[in-house]
Recover the amino acids of this structure.
């Protein structure tokens, strides 16, 4: 299958790399940009940091999966430098990271954030599509948090962040290889029945789910976060919680008439031991769906 590739400036990846490990090395060596609004918000908090609590910072960071990733990587590296890398010492959440590392340290080390809007200034379509993926990720994290709380899962905070980072590799590909991402997007538009993994392999030579997991390992992110991101453990309730939230967010982004939502609601209902109608009503915030049965 011929996939047209747009020429890129040197700082972007313009053609498929040779292997999954090559993609992993390239992405993990790049500075990660964040949402422009995150840059603005963090800078504003820094001006009044004497009155800012770790939870205030965490609330802002968790609105942005890319900033969430940067914070977890930052804390993990610092902990390893301090020789606190035992399993019991892992920092599993953004708020724990800020508490452990300190508010002053957070603002000092993130004083010069780059926005992906600036990085992709010559790619407005890539900016728009990346914003959509981030919006989807935030929705997925909200769904996952709600269901984890309903299930009384003690790891709800990590489940929230795992859902937020579920499509991390896709986000980073928009940041680092926008023309390749645009090629995938056009291919998906032209062939809507084509499987996402097949599109990714046709354009990139790899599957993004595989890259996602390898990046989390490369960055030495918490072991629980890795388990939640590994689809090979999809029978575990917490992993299923994350996967179903990501699926629902992706399908709902197409509108509430997307036919895949029927199976989503059925699968979520099994996880929560409820009915599909109950799930749909809860997910859609109690609005009148005109489809909800009275069962």
């Amino acid at each position: 299958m011929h996939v047209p590739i747009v020429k890129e400036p040197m700082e972007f990846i313009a053609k498929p790399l040779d292997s999954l490990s090559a993609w992993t090395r390239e992405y993990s060596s790049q500075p990660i940009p964040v949402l422009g609004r995150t840059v603005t918000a963090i800078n504003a908090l820094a001006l009044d940091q004497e009155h800012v609590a770790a939870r205030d910072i965490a609330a802002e960071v968790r609105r942005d999966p890319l900033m969430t990733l940067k914070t977890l990587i930052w804390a993990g590296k610092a902990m390893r430098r301090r020789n606190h890398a035992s399993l019991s010492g892992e920092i599993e959440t953004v708020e724990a990271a800020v508490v452990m590392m300190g508010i002053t340290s957070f603002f000092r080390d993130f004083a010069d954030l780059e926005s992906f809007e600036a990085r992709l200034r010559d790619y407005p379509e890539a900016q728009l599509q990346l914003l959509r993926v981030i919006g989807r990720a935030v929705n997925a994290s909200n769904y996952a948090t709600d269901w984890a709380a309903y299930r009384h899962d003690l790891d709800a905070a990590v489940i929230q962040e795992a859902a937020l980072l579920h499509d991390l590799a896709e986000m980073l590909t928009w940041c680092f290889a926008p023309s390749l991402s645009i090629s995938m997007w056009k291919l998906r538009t032209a062939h809507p029945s084509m499987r996402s993994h097949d599109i990714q392999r046709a354009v990139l030579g790899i599957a993004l789910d595989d890259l996602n997991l390898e990046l989390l390992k490369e960055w030495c992110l918490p072991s629980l976060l890795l388990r939640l991101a590994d689809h090979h453990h999809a029978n575990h309730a917490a992993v299923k919680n994350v996967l179903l939230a990501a699926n629902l967010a992706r399908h709902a982004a197409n509108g509430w008439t997307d036919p895949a939502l029927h199976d989503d609601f059925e699968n979520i209902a099994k996880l929560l031991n409820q009915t599909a109608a109950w799930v749909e009503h809860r997910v859609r915030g109690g609005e009148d769906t005109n489809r909800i049965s009275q069962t």
